[in-house]
Design brief:
By secondary structure, this protein is of the alpha/beta class. Helix content is about 35%, strand content about 25%. The chain is built from seven helices and nine strands. The strands form two sheets. A seven-stranded mixed sheet has the order 5-4-3-6-7-9-8, with helices on both faces.
């Protein structure tokens, strides 16, 4: 039987189960989360959507800086960990939903939870499904913070955000989450003019 481990990042303690995604380099994870906060530039009033939340690592890390976080993940065990992590850290302004992103992140979901001011997305290596990108284009959130372990899929989706929805890429960077490999965690922030 796999054990769940505890990890502390900033002022948040995470329970990490065997079916939950968490950054492989825990030392660099906090740096990544801090960069997300910096890119998002929260004022405290934002309705934030965290797409592909895993066990809620980014959602819980940023929760104190915004009004509410609505997070979606397709792995049920990860959402169970996210909910337990919210309780463990007495974070009450995060809501977690399980389901396939292309099916859950739809017009009805947005009508129920309100238009997001900021969207944070950290998709798997394949990037976001075309239906998810289409929904991002339709919503027109003020800011999108895109985290990716595959710079090629970030570039593909960035092209759509810039050319089809008029977003401007205002910052970008990379964090070495995978030492001694050719892989990096890339990040970009897109602002709606």
């Amino acid at each position: 039987e796999f054990r769940r481990v505890l990890f502390r990042s900033g002022d948040v303690t995470f329970r990490i189960g065997p079916h939950s995604f968490f950054q492989t380099s825990t030392r660099q994870a906090e740096r990544l989360f801090d960069t997300v906060k910096e890119f998002a530039d929260f004022k405290g009033t934002e309705n934030v959507y965290d797409l592909y939340t895993g066990l809620g690592s980014i959602a819980l890390y940023i929760a104190k800086q915004c009004k509410q976080v609505v997070a979606i993940e397709e792995i049920e065990e990860a959402i169970a960990d996210a909910k337990e992590n919210a309780k463990r850290n007495t974070i009450a302004n995060c809501e977690f939903y399980v389901g396939d992103m292309k099916n859950v992140f739809n017009d009805d979901f947005i009508a129920q939870h309100g238009k997001p001011d900021v969207i944070i997305t950290d998709p798997p290596r394949d990037g976001m499904h075309a239906a998810v990108v289409e929904q991002l284009l339709k919503i027109g959130a003020d800011k999108i913070v895109y985290v990716s372990c595959n710079p090629a899929t970030l570039a593909r989706d960035a092209g759509l955000l810039v050319h089809q929805a008029g977003y401007r890429c205002t910052a970008a960077g990379a964090i070495n989450m995978f030492p001694h490999t050719a892989h990096v965690e890339s990040m970009a922030v897109f602002d709606k003019p």
